[in-house]
Amino acid sequence: MKILIIGGGFAGCASAEILSNFKKSKIVLIEKGNDLGAGVRTHFYGGHPFTFGPRHFLTENKDTYLYLKKFLKMRNCNYHQFKSYVEQDDNFYNYPLNKRDIQVMPDRKKIYNQLKNKKKIINANNLEEFWIKSVGKILYNKVIKNYNKKMWMVDDCKILDTFNWSPKGFTIKSGNRAAFNDRISAYPIHKDGYNRFFDKIKKIKNVKIKMRTTLDKLNMQKKTYQIGGKKYKFDILINTIAPDTLFNYKYGKLKFIGRDLIKIVFPTKEVFPKDVFFLYYPNTEKFTRMVEYKKFTKHKSKNSLVGLEIPSKNGRYYPFPIKSEQKKARKYFSLFKHNCFSIGRAGTYRYEVDIDDCIEQSLKIKEIILKNSWDGPIVGERFK
Ligand SMILES: Cc1cc2nc3c(=O)[nH]c(=O)nc-3n(C[C@H](O)[C@H](O)[C@H](O)COP(=O)(O)OP(=O)(O)OC[C@H]3O[C@@H](n4cnc5c(N)ncnc54)[C@H](O)[C@@H]3O)c2cc1C
């Protein structure tokens, strides 16, 4: 069984490892960059380990965690907190919003009044409507509105007509201030983070990796591809790159938001308060969030590295979460032929796809191949 994998990020690497367990499989993975792992790869700055943005492992699917634990020792961090700086109150509050913070807000009476109207089931047409119906206008204006305007580079959150990805678990939490104490939240113990997982892929006998390579041609109907003027055959294709790129932008370009990462070393052992790993900025500043890497990596130094993220047009990291773009993506997906899959964040064209989903999709592909039950390129009901 000849398997072609396009892209050597988390989705491509997990698929290569999982499918290499088929005894008769011969896998070719092509990656246009110099490294495997893409943004999840750990690099070093002044000896401080860092990734492009936080990349902590978060899941409700234990199988994906158990899979990763076969290769990496993981450290639990489900106690970690996000704090949002609200300029108008000059205060940091937890994100997800916590009832205990609302108690100390100067405008709490008006907020409680607005929360009285909160419905159990929320029908909404866009992100703004969803959040106002969930938490009221004051809280929406404080922590959600500007953050999303910056994150998606839009003038108005009404443009965002999908939003199931937006509340990270809760809209308002009570009790525990941790962001994700309801699921598995972990980070590799190793100094080089996830790298040994990516490096393992290079050593698998039936996986051939072609770095700094892109396809010249792909024919899904005939199941052939061309690299450097040479033609090859495949039985199964796993695409992990944006579908518009794969089909030479035949139906136009899909919209993505990029991101710039600025690395800042502070001359203190720790910068953020204990248990706070992220700071969010939902005001008029250009950046959206900061992560103090040491909180995840436990790197020992008298200094601490902080990554500051600014949404930009640099890169294609965040599939734009609006229905018309998703419809365009589906047009591309309709071009996929039997046993051709499209997974991962760009491959699925869904912002919701995180590291655990890349593993889940790769595990599911194995099942689909075993059962010979391909029913379309998108893997996982919730992404279809
Ligand atoms: C800033 C940021 C922070 C994040 N933080 C977290 C987090 O904390 N936790 C979490 O779970 N998820 C996080 N995510 C999401 C998660 O990291 C991604 O969902 C996941 O890594 C995506 O992996 P992938 O393989 O689908 O795609 P990618 O990582 O994008 O990999 C695709 C690969 O394909 C290669 N490629 C592109 N075009 C071609 C081509 N034409 N030919 C060959 N190769 C090509 C690229 O070079 C790349 O190596 C974050 C994402 C971002 C952008």
Bound molecules: flavin-adenine dinucleotide
Which strand order does the major sheet show? 8-7-18-19-20-17-21
Tell me the CATH topology of the domain at 2-41 and 194-250 and 320-383: Rossmann fold
Shape: globular
How many H/I helices? 12
Query: Can you identify the CATH class of the domain at 2-41 and 194-250 and 320-383?
Result: Alpha Beta
Structural class: alpha/beta
Task: Give the biggest sheet.
Answer: 7 strands, mixed
CATH superfamily of the domain at 2-41 and 194-250 and 320-383: NAD(P)-binding Rossmann-like Domain
Ends apart, CA distance between termini: 26 Å
Q: Which residues sit in consecutive blocks of at least 5 with pLDDT less than 50?
A: none
User: What is the helix fraction of residues, given as a range?
Assistant: 25-40%
- Give the number of DSSP strands: 22
Overall mean confidence score, pLDDT: 96
Strand content: 15-25%
What is the correct CATH architecture of the domain at 2-41 and 194-250 and 320-383? 3-Layer(aba) Sandwich
Radius of gyration, taken over Cα atoms and rounded to an integer in Å: 22 Å
Written overview of the protein:
Strand 3 and strand 4 form a beta hairpin. The model has no long low-confidence stretch (mean pLDDT 96). Helix 1 packs parallel to helix 12, helix 2 crosses helix 12 and helix 5 (127-135) runs antiparallel to helix 6. Among the domains are: 2-41 and 194-250 and 320-383, NAD(P)-binding Rossmann-like Domain (Rossmann fold), CATH 3.40.50.720; 81-177, no CATH class. Helix content is 27%, strand content 25%. Strands 8-7-18-19-20-17-21 form a seven-stranded mixed beta sheet. With 384 residues, it is an alpha/beta fold. 41% of the residues are buried. The radius of gyration is 22 Å and the shape is globular. Residues 6-12, 30-33, 38-40, 52-56, 58, 214, 240-241, 245, 259, 317, 344-347, 353-356, 358 line the site of flavin-adenine dinucleotide (FAD).
